[in-house]
Specification:
There is one protein chain. The protein is α/β, with parallel strands linked by helices and about 290 residues long. It has one domain: Alpha-Beta Barrel (TIM Barrel), CATH 3.20.20.220. It is about 45% helix and about 15% strand. It is built from ten helices and eight strands. The protein has an eight-stranded parallel barrel, surrounded by eight helices. Helix 2 runs parallel beside helix 3 and helix 3 runs parallel beside helix 4. It is globular. The structure holds flavin-adenine dinucleotide.
């Protein structure tokens, strides 16, 4: 069982607990991106098991009429075992999710995975679309999206390439420690890249831009760009981070909360707690009972 201290960042260990959390979010006008925690599997059984859980989850989301989609790490679906394994498992999840009208995001991992991830995304987006409503999916928003990282030097070119692909694109600053020959190291530069990428996307994309950031300056920039160009966008933030802002922004914008769950929660929780000193204090206070 997840200790109360981790409940702030992780929705529980079971799909039912995750969906209970999604129901509460939907009640406050916030949609959900559900992620089963798991990554870097080096044999097939956990890949098969997680892929099966995602397929079942898509059915549960549809049957419970929840406003939620899925988000999956490539190495959770076998990328470390080979691109063919990853593609086979991912396509089966996207197909099952599409049957239920559920959208699937592909998270982006470190720079060694970018080509394989974008190639798989592009093929699937051309087949399943990018979340636009269609008669065949009974008015729901099936399709695929992918994440791009502003810290990687290659991303400007990737973002231009993706302008011709129908899927949605989530913009993040980048969570991985990348080497200096492929990635900007300085946060001022990464912020500038992030702004520039948004400017390009709002001007050239047909729709479906995800702002995966808690940064008030970047969210404000996206809102201004939306007002200028009219391009559709959604704000995406993590469970447990700036939740008051999520509820407030949801009054005027489409807001999604990224909701992780599953029994592999410890390393995710550790990352969240250690990324900001305020969170370390929060954890210590909870442990000391104050
Ligand atoms: P930062 O640059 O960390 O901070 C900027 C400002 O935002 C801060 O000064 C503060 O005002 C505010 N802020 C940030 N964090 C907090 C906080 N905890 N509490 C209060 N205020 C805060 N990365 C990937 O590499 N691949 C992915 O697939 C991916 N998916 C993501 C999906 C979502 C929905 C989100 C939100 C992030 C994702 N990330 C992903 C992580 C991302 O790359 C960043 O590492 C992470 O979001 C931190 O950057 P930031 O833009 O939120 O803000």
């Amino acid at each position: 069982m997840i200790p109360p201290i981790a409940n702030r960042f992780v929705a529980g260990e079971s799909p039912a607990q995750a969906l209970d959390h999604v129901r509460r979010l939907n009640g406050r006008n916030v949609k959900a991106i559900v992620n089963l925690l798991g990554e870097h599997y080096d044999d097939r059984p956990p890949v098969r098991s997680d892929a099966g859980e995602y397929r079942a989850l898509a059915g549960d989301i549809a049957n419970s009429n929840l406003d939620a989609c899925l988000s999956i790490k490539p190495s959770q679906l076998g990328l470390d075992l080979g691109e063919d394994v990853f593609r086979e498992e991912l396509e089966a999840v996207v197909e099952a999710a599409a049957d239920h009208g559920v959208f699937v995001w592909i998270d982006m991992e470190d720079h060694t995975t970018t080509d394989a991830t974008l190639d798989a995304f592009e093929d699937l987006a051309r087949e399943y679309g990018g979340g636009e409503r269609s008669a065949s999916d009974q008015g729901s928003d099936a399709g695929v999206g992918v994440c791009v990282q502003a810290n990687l030097e290659r991303t400007r070119a990737d973002v231009e390439r993706l302008a011709d692909v129908p899927g949605k694109v989530r913009f993040v600053k980048g969570a991985y420690d990348e080497p200096a020959d492929v990635a900007y190291q300085d946060s001022t530069r990464i912020n500038r890249e992030y702004r520039d990428l948004l400017e390009y996307a709002f001007e050239h994309y047909d729709g479906g831009i995800g702002i995966g950031s808690h940064d008030p300056a970047m969210i404000e920039h996206a809102i201004d760009l939306h007002e200028e160009h009219g391009t559709d966008f959604e704000i995406q933030m993590l469970m447990g981070v700036r939740e008051d802002a999520q509820y407030e922004l949801a009054d005027d914008h489409s807001v999604y909360q990224y909701v992780p769950y599953g029994d592999r929660w410890k390393s995710y929780f550790y990352r969240r707690v250690t990324e900001r000193k305020e969170n370390v204090w929060f954890a210590l206070r909870a442990i000391l009972g104050r």
